[in-house]
Design goal:
The protein is mostly beta strands. 11% of the residues lie in helices and 61% in strands. The chain has a 46-stranded mixed β-sheet that branches. A hairpin with a 7-residue loop joins strand 30 and strand 31. Helix 6 packs antiparallel against helix 8. It starts with a strand and ends in a 9-residue tail after the last helix.
Length: 675
């Protein structure tokens, strides 16, 4: 066998035809070749059979190749079978009509298609038309310059272009139809193409799933330039509907046209969008650039200008980006404009300004109304002073009043320049200092010092849905830090409630913006008036003073998972029959000292010397204790005077849900109920 190389394949065949018809016998001809190469096409193990028709009109052609390569289409090692009739028409043109079958083409392209080839020597044109089902591909090119072609595609399955896309990107189309009119040039260094296109319900995907889209429709102009070093893509389009995923950026396009203009460069598995313009009239306008690494991860994001109108901007374009900041679900209204830059490690600069913006997390944990002003931050440049404030702020259902602060970026930290006072629950929260490091992915992200004065506990209870009781909350927090994904409280908070004090120290809050935040800390109780406490919770009346501690508190998703509680009233007092019954129920015990139920009913209250109850919670089990051990349990109430009353608890290990139900039952009545 020998290698055959000629110009267009059509004239390669015509040469055979001339040879076979040169003799009057009109004998058939079979030709084989190890390889055949023409511009844009190479065949391996090719076999062609040409047989004159019995009526002398035309030639029956059969051509097969074990391997066919079309580099411009990204087609490699395809099986090829071509058969049909070749003849001259009344204009003297060579016309081939038959069928072509490819084996192994991406997307199942041309598995069984009708093909028509017309070679017009006088007009120097070669025209190819291929039809399969409703898909049509037409190619026209000069015979003396087959490296240049005009291509028309109609209803072409997007999957057929998988090979072509593989020359510039590792992804693949998954659905939809494509129409196009393109000019194609095959160069020694690569391929150039330009023209118009239209998409109907197109989908695509990438190996890592970071770049994807579905049900995308629209039209526009495309330019493509490929080489061994990479490929350049220029696009100007009007897109309608469908969803896009570009790394952390998710877009849900509206039914009306969104104008997109970009210039992108694909090289060694990376994708850089060097120029990007997007205009969605009622939602978002932006200019900037994007970059993705070989894994499809966002490596750079620079928005030189953006103008967003909420809620449409968030609903259509913001959900994916906001999730990268640890937030899932956002309600927003208003306008915001500015610029933004991000690198592989996170943000490197941003500036935003707004006249009136409302934001709230979907679960109501955080929210701000009437946000106004501007902030300007950079990780490596000092920026000018700005002002930003709000009309109202809500943090975990705690309402805060209007405030405004002065901010400045210096050394990568966005800092409050002077103290700011925030009205909270008839009191004040003074933010003495605050520094935020937006670029910090680990370590200390935020540091602040706070002072709380005269926070009304009744208003606090109403805000969080607790049974209402009086008192005030105050204290100094010399250091509150957001480190990694944990809030750490330095100093402490003091609650002046029930004519005593509750001190909170060592508090931390891990994963504060997740669905399961973890709260830890220690609580000290000092000199609380039991009469005021029990009147609020309808536990039954107890007089006297209570002190104790709840150490190593751990709440997961705001539900207790661990603590060590010690409660003691050791100054004596009176306890009502209802309180006695409830303490007995909580301890799973009974009344000692020979008192019968009929005797108890004769007395409304009893004197006591001490009351003590301990509970150490680990998992779902609470280890119970009291004033001291007895023969078959532990003492909860040590009586005083006559009748002498002693309450003993018998259950050392109590299922926490069971204990919680007992506490809830003990506080049910005409008063408030703890949930």
């Amino acid at each position: 066998m020998r290698r055959v190389s000629t110009r267009p394949l059509a004239f390669f065949l015509v040469a055979w035809i001339a040879l076979s018809w040169g003799a009057p016998a009109h004998a058939g001809l079979s030709v084989g070749a190890d390889s055949v190469s023409v511009p844009g096409l190479s065949l391996t193990d090719m076999q062609a059979d040409l047989n004159p028709q019995g009526d002398g009109k035309g030639i029956q052609l059969q051509l097969t190749a074990k391997k066919a390569d079309v580099p411009a289409m990204g087609w490699r090692k395809l099986g090829l079978a071509l058969e049909g009739q070749l003849d001259r028409d009344e204009l003297g043109r060579w016309v081939f009509e038959g069928r072509v079958r490819l084996r192994g083409a991406p997307g199942g392209a041309l598995t069984d298609a009708a093909v028509r080839i017309v070679a017009d020597e006088a007009a120097n044109t070669l025209a190819v038309s291929v039809t399969q089902d409703k898909a049509v591909a037409e190619v026209a090119l000069p015979i003396d310059q087959v490296t240049h072609a005009q291509i028309t595609l109609k209803n072409l399955p997007a999957g057929w272009l998988q090979g072509l896309l593989s020359t510039v990107w590792s992804g693949r189309p998954t659905a939809g139809k494509v129409n196009a009119d393109l000019a194609l040039d095959l160069l020694d260094t690569g391929t150039q193409a330009a023209g118009q296109f239209a998409l109907d319900g197109v989908g695509f995907d990438s190996p890592g799933g970071k770049l994807a889209g579905q049900k995308i429709s629209g039209s526009g102009r495309l330019g493509l330039d490929t080489s061994q070093e990479g490929a350049t893509i220029d696009l100007d389009a009007a897109l309608r509907g469908g969803e896009w995923l570009l790394g952390p950026l998710y877009a849900n396009l509206p039914a009306h046209a969104v104008q997109v203009s970009l210039s992108a460069r694909s090289q060694k598995g990376t994708l850089g969008i060097r120029r990007l313009r997007l205009t969605d009239p009622d939602a978002l306008q932006l200019e900037g650039e994007l970059g993705f690494d070989t894994k499809g991860e966002l490596s750079t994001l620079r928005l030189d200008r953006f103008n967003a109108r909420f809620p449409a901007a968030y609903d259509r374009y913001g959900k994916g980006l906001v999730r990268t900041w640890g937030l899932d679900g956002l309600r927003a209204s208003g306008d915001v404009a500015g610029h933004l830059a991000m690198g592989p490690g996170g943000p490197t600069a941003f500036a935003v300004q707004t006249g009136d913006l409302d934001l709230a997390m979907a679960d109501g944990r955080l929210g701000v109304n009437g946000l106004h002003g501007s902030v300007d931050w950079s990780v490596d440049e000092d920026r000018p002073t700005t002002r930003m404030g709000w009309q109202s702020l809500q943090v975990y259902r705690i309402p805060n009043g209007a405030a405004e602060g002065t901010w400045r970026s210096k050394g990568g930290t966005l800092a409050l320049e002077k103290p700011m006072a925030i009205p909270v629950l008839d009191g004040n929260l003074r933010v003495l200092s605050l520094g935020w490091k937006p670029a910090a992915a680990t370590g200390e992200r935020l540091q602040t010092s706070l002072a709380l004065t005269q926070i009304d506990m009744g208003a606090f209870c109403r805000a969080v849905g607790w049974p209402e009781f009086g008192g005030t909350l105050g204290g100094a927090v010399p250091s509150l830090r957001y480190v990694d994904d944990r809030v750490e409280l330095g100093g402490g908070l003091a609650l002046n409630v029930f004519d005593g004090f509750v001190d909170i120290t060592g508090m931390t809050l891990s994963r504060p913006f997740s669905d399961a935040p973890v709260l830890a800390g220690n609580i000290a109780l000092r000199n609380l008036d039991l009469a005021k406490m029990t009147s609020v919770f309808d536990f039954g009346s107890i007089t006297g003073r209570l002190h104790g501690s709840i150490d190593d508190v751990r709440l997961v998703a705001w539900q207790p998972s661990a603590f060590k509680a010690t409660l003691l009233a050791d100054q004596g007092g009176r306890i009502s029959q209802k309180a006695v019954n409830n303490l007995t129920s909580v301890g799973g015990g009974g009344i000692a000292g020979g008192l019968q139920g009929t005797v108890l009913k004769l007395f409304k209250t009893f004197g006591y010397r001490r009351i003590g109850l301990n509970c150490t919670l680990k998992g779902d089990v609470c280890s119970m204790g009291g004033l001291g051990a007895t023969k078959d349990g532990y003492t909860i109430v040590e009586g005083s005077g006559l009748p002498h009353l002693t309450v003993v608890g018998h259950q050392r290990e109590v299922d926490w849900p069971t204990l919680l139900r007992r506490l809830q039952a003990a506080t049910k009545g005409d008063g408030p109920t703890i949930q």
